[in-house]
Design a protein that fits this description.
Chain A: It is found in: Mitochondrion inner membrane. The complex is a heterodimer of chains A (about 170) and B (about 160). Chain A has two helices and eleven strands. Chain A has about 170 residues and is α+β, with helices and mostly antiparallel strands. Chain A is globular. Chain B has helices spanning about 1-30, 60-65, 130-135, and strands at about 35-40, 50-55, 70-75, 85-90, 95-100, 105-110, 115-120, 135, 140-150, 155. Chain B has a single domain (about 35-155), classed as Umud Fragment, subunit A. Classes of the chains: A alpha+beta (about 170), B alpha+beta (about 160).
């Protein structure tokens, strides 16, 4: 009888903490692993496939920016891929609505439409970003990366970096 | 001294209960279902101009069971702070033919790219939808409307 009560209260506690954890990670902040080298050297500066996912950077992603969808140039964001909503990507915002972005590869100048943003990885040679799939709607953004939390020797604040030669306000 | 201990314990219990209810409320409103107020002319005659209370469910779009004909809530690609209500006309791979009633009545055909959907309002004359801003990534879909609660004379399931 006592074991039954204990099991029941344990289940209730697990359920409560699960709910609280889910709510906090949806509304406030959560921890995500970064895979791939498209953001080298900011994240995953060494491609060490021997260690696998243990050596991947784990970052803190905050969701307060989603109240008004207000971002700044150089913010690192996590967003759903426009071609596959189940995949999430981590890139840096280069252009906000109204900016003109120059793409040297096609000698084109693109204006970022209202409600969209232009994202690029810090490692242009191995990054699938807005240079391939164009500007993405801001509604796809799931959070903003503020700190690296793992591995311990790389714990630091993620800085905003501006690409002065890539964007110009309209 | 013991009174403060008792008071602190009481405060902790109340806070935990409040947190429990708040989290249950959040999880229900984001993962199960919730009532929403919709208004505007773009879904006439299905939805009223002056406002309906609709029940939205958040399960179908997570398991990928959305198809043409569903009324969905989508975060607008033009303004991420607004959520619009439209009907899915085509999913990825479909050929969609549409016309813009005030732009010379010319017909256009487009193939919906991978990972996107084509949404249109039922009232083609007063709706800003995929005919203006193009196909919308599936990740912008927030929920599906399945039941109307108010006004009472049109109480019942939708589409």
């Amino acid at each position: 009888m006592a074991a039954h009560n204990f099991l029941w209260s344990l289940t209730k506690n697990c359920f409560t903490f699960g709910l609280i954890g889910l709510t906090v990670s949806d509304r406030y902040a959560s921890i995500v692993p970064v895979r791939g080298s498209s953001m080298s050297p900011t994240f995953n500066p060494t491609t060490d496939s021997f260690m696998g996912s243990l050596s991947d950077d784990h970052v803190l992603m905050e969701k307060f920016c989603l109240q008004k969808y207000k971002f700044s140039h150089g913010d690192v964001i996590v967003f759903c891929s426009p071609s596959n909503h189940k995949e999430k990507h981590v890139k840096r915002i280069i252009g906000l609505p109204g900016d003109w972005i120059g793409t040297p590869m096609t000698n084109d100048v693109v204006k970022v439409p209202n409600g969209h943003c232009w994202v690029e990885g810090d490692n242009p040679s191995s990054s699938l970003d807005s240079r391939s799939f164009g500007p993405i709607p801001l509604g796809l953004v799931k959070g903003r990366v503020t700190h690296i939390l793992w591995p311990p020797q790389r714990v630091r604040h993620v800085e905003r970096k501006n690409h002065q030669k890539r964007h110009s306000p309209s | 001294m013991r009174r403060w201990g008792l008071l602190a314990k009481e405060a902790l219990t109340q806070t935990l209960t409040f947190a429990r209810f708040f989290c249950l409320f959040h999880v229900t409103n984001h993962y199960l279902w919730s009532p929403t107020l919709v208004f505007g002319p773009s879904m006439l005659p299905t939805l009223n101009l002056t406002g309906d209370v609709i029940l939205a469910e958040y399960v179908s779009h997570r398991v990928g069971r959305l198809g043409p004909g569903d009324i969905v809530f989508v975060r607008s690609p033009v303004d991420p702070n607004k959520i619009v209500t439209k009907r899915i006309v085509g999913v990825e791979g479909d050929r969609v033919t549409y016309f813009k009633p005030r732009n010379g009545d010319s017909c256009h055909t487009v193939v919906v790219p991978k990972g996107h959907v084509w949404i249109q309002g039922d009232n083609l004359y007063a709706s800003r939808d995929s005919r203006q801003f193009g196909p919308v990534p599936y990740g912008l879909i927030e929920g599906k409307a399945f039941f109307r609660v108010w006004p009472p004379n049109s109480f019942g399931s939708l589409g």
